[in-house]
Amino acid sequence: MSSDRQIGSVGGGGGGKSTQAMAAILPHHIKKNLADRSYEKRKTAALEVERIVKEYNSNDKKDSEKINVIINVLVNEYAYSTQANSRKGGLIGLAATAIALMDDIGGYLNLLLPPVLKCFEDQQSRVRYYACEALYNITKVARGSVLVFFNEIFDGLCKLFMDLDMDVKNGAQLLDRLTKDVVAETESFDVEKFIPLLRERIRVKDPFIRQLIVGWITVLDSVPDIDILIYLPEFLGGLFEMLSDVNKDIRQQAYSALQEFLHEIKDNVKLDLGPMVGILVKQCEMKDQFTRLTALCWIYEFIELGKIKLLPFLADMLGVVLLCISDEEEEIRLKANVTNKRLLKLVESTQEKFAIKALLNKITTHLVNKYVPTRLASLQWISMMLAKKPDTMFKHLPKLFPSLLDTLSDPDDKVVRLDLKVLARICVNKEHFDVVLNNLVNRFKCDRKLLETRGSLIVRQLSVLLDGESIYRAFASILLKEVDLEFASLMVQTLNLILLTSSELFELRGLLKRSLTSKQSSELFIQIYQAWAHNAVSTFSLCLLARVYELASALVTHMAETEVTVGFLMQVDKLVQLIESPIFIQLRLQLLEPRRYPFLLKSLYGLLMLLPQSSAFACLKNRLDSISTLGILTADQASSSLLALGGSSSSSNTNKGGGGEE
Fold this sequence. Notes:
35 helices
């Protein structure tokens, strides 16, 4: 050790002269009693040493050489002895020397302290206790001068606080309190030198060390001349880790220290918060709930304090906030939600640049999170950024599209609806509108289950968010070019069912019903009709909806020439059910005017002829039979009216004739 070399240099160089000097300075009986088993004898010897040192340090004859010799003897012959009693005597003697030196002790501390500190590691508990006592006495005399060795003293305290012997622990606590008093009253404490040791020791999980550490952090923070706040990033993580300690007192002490630091941070507008953000982010991912909540509270305050200065750390902060939004603890969820809103507001209102790519990477990662609140919050961020920076966001669409399309398969309807809102916001741009619809059709093509389970919801929501006519025109254009005829037929069948049944497409249906009277409606019908040709039954139903009955009648004849499959019959069965629904109520009323709508009647009779004997056949036949009966009744009523009209004329003529005859 370095301390051994320092002491050796004092004792060396004198040779035989030093031995004679020792004999003259420390009488034999003092040397003997210093190593005695009896504490009283050792104490008496130490008092003699104190008296001798005082004489050599008196004002009229200061003899530092002889004092050095005495210290050399106490160190090499006693403190470093292999005999425990000798070490005890050496420690008492060194303490006595310190007391004797009083104000002049500063020049001898480099000789006095190293052997005392070395004895903190002694195998004998009583030696460790005497070492603690010796350092206490030295510190009491030296006061601020001892702080040159503060790191070594603190390291020794750490060892003593972990000691198994209660006397040693109690002595260490007394020494600790004294050292804190000394630091509090001095103006020359080198906190920068201490921080590396603090950073190292704060990671030790021993409860006694943690109590020691928190106590020192609190003391240093309370000293006006010590600005420990600027070093907070060095030990902040360790303080947070103490929040999960099994010892309640340690948790409370750590939390109190953290609260005090947070209060000071709020009052220090110049403090750089950036270095602490990474620490807080890491703590938000810890298993301990109290740790996560506290770290989240800090982030919440930091956003308000740092504002745009924290934008470089936006992605990391948002990542943990999104995780905490779905935390199992309600208090954490609530805090995460308000923190997310504050962060969202900060980004939404800022004009400063920030790393969108890093932010999107974090958000898209959370789009596949297993918790719904996190996925919803992620989509809200994408939506906000599309509104704020559309041009910049559009550059990242190639990477963003797959994630958004994958989210359409989400099992939660709320997530799908919000995802569609995001896609709708992208579609505001005409170029991207076509891209979104093409990608959507391709996704339906690759994932038929998505079309089956989510197709209706997706098309209906897009029709509400954008415009039903635009959506159906776009789908028609895409499907017109589709080479996979089986998929095209299935897609048309799905779109047609949505068109006929969903309330969201009421206006589009109304537009199609005017196909024979409006140019816009006529163009719309033609465009959709061309794509709907992929599916015969859908095309026929479109003609019925658009009231193009003559074309529908022709289609029935055409359908009879194609192969009638089970799938075809199931579609016709579904169409018959729809004819009986409110959607086609006008069509059913038009059946009352067979002369005005002859092709409607022909179309439905043709459809009836295509059906085998089934429930659908019976349903449609009943409907048409009621119309036939009405037609007969109408004809009978017309004949009766004509006969009545003829009889009236004959009677009139007879009367006239009769009147003439008279």
